[in-house]
Amino acid sequence: MSTEVNVKLSKKFARVLAMLPSVRVSEGTWSLMIQKVLIGINNLLNDAFVGLEEEKKGREIMMLLVPPGNDPPPVLGDQVKLGGNLHVTKKFGVFTVPTISALAHCCCMMLTSYYPVQVTVPGRALIALSRRVLLVDGSLRNKLFPSTTSLHQELICFELPSLHSSFLDLLHATIKGMRSQLLPHAANIVRLVTDYFKIAKLPTTRTKVYSIVQLLLTSMGVGMSLHLLEVIVSNAVGDLDDNCVKEMTLFSTNPSKGTSESLSKSYSKKRKQEPQIQNSHASGLEKAAISPKKMKTSSMPTSSKGMTPETPGDVRMFTPLCVKIAALETLEILLNVGGSLRTDHWRAKVDLLLINIATSACDSGAGYEPSTTKVGETSISHFRLASYKALLASFLSSPHARPLYLAQGTELFRKGKISCLSFTPSVP
Fold first, then answer.
1. Per the CB 3.0–4.6 Å rule, which of 60, 225, 343, 374 could disulfide with 338?
2. Where are the annotated segments for Disordered (predicted)?
3. CA neighbours closer than 13 Å in the CB half-sphere of residue 173
4. Burial of 241 by CB count in 10 Å (0-12 exposed, 13-18 middle, 19+ buried)?
């Protein structure tokens, strides 16, 4: 790839690189190629994350890829010269990050594409590499690097959403590709997902984390649901329980567009106001990120059980539809897989939340269907359908002989029958 990386072209090169092992089919060919790609990613991250993580992170991953006593494979391309004639600040944005993303996409292709020979996936290295990127939030970790200025921190924060998105895709592909080999690494993945949920701010990243959780639940069953139960319920309830269904028509149907640009603009403004960012307790990514939830003032008290009434000065935080749909779909799978387990402390709250959301979606969203909705974009019909499916899963997995809200749910299904039958979800 050239120094001026075109995103579409780089993905094509990544696909070609991923298909090279098929030219000479053998387990060693595939393993050598993915080893080279992962080493290349790790080396690029060493330069990108100077001062933003512990120094030993890169060495630890390198030891997983090349065990002590083994010789490292030849370098994938001439990484010394690539991007060498670019200024360091420009190089990071136009070469380093796009190259890392392209190589991560190559790994995704290799992990999910058919290969005629059974191969061993370097699971520990893939998960460790994903963890290395996903848990970097832009804050300075090491005071021994005074050269890591606020400008470098700003560049990192500008590109972190792109890097996080690429490595969430890589983690998803790792889980999908490893299949039966995943079990020994399940605990590490659960810890990574739990930790990342705490820092995931953007709609695109939260949606992808929910997608990863859904894949874990469907591929590993009830055992995984026990370990992910708390993190799923707490995050899904937090994303859903904000009474925003009454304001659904105010939401953007495609909130992911322009998110990265908004991030960078927000960070640039804050950097002018806060020149000493590295001395702040907040992370760089938190300062860069605009919350994916839209703010709105309200003087109406909330009707949800257990929530305190608001004053006129309270600020409402509204979650985008795409995140709400992902949360509903995750709750649906959780209820189908392990809904009857450990229901004492969470099931009643989830059941009440689902019936309230389905009721509000049916009432507030009726008759509103944007004519400009494109394929792959979320709409209120998607949200309404997801709420019905989650409510149905709640009824079918109920620990009671008769579900608590069966009468209300039956009436909702009757009301929504015509609209749901006339609506066919678009397949992305």
1. 225
2. 254-311
3. 21
4. buried
416 assigned to some structural domain:
yes
Closest CA to 204 of 128, 137, 263: 263
CB contact at 8 A, 166 and 14: no
Tell me which residue has tokens 């039966």: 180
246 with 278, same domain?
A: no
pLDDT of residue 317: 55
Please give the structure tokens belonging to residue 269. 């403004």
Q: Mention every residue, 6+ apart, whose C-beta is less than 8 A from residue 229.
A: 334, 338, 341, 342, 346
Co-location of 62 and 82 in the same domain: yes
pLDDT digits (tens, 9 = 90+) for 98-138: 889 999 999 999 999 988 888 889 999 999 999 999 999 87
Tell me whether residue 321 is in a domain: no
98 and 207, same domain (yes or no): no
Q: Which domain holds residue 379?
A: 200-255+326-428
> CA-CA distance, 188 to 173, in Å (whole number)?
16
Q: What are 69-94's pLDDT values in tens digits?
A: 888 888 876 554 455 555 556 677 77
Rounded distance, CA 116 to CA 26, Å?
Answer: 9
Highest mean pLDDT range out of 74-78, 156-160, 241-245, 362-366? 156-160
Statement to judge: residues 280 and 247 lie in one domain: no
* pLDDT at residue 86, as a whole number: 55
Tell me whether residue 313 is in a domain: no
**Does 185 fall in a domain?**
yes
Please report the sign of the dihedral spanned by the C-alpha atoms of residue 327, residue 162, residue 52, residue 68: positive
Of 360, 334, 390, give the one whose Cα is nearest residue 242.
360
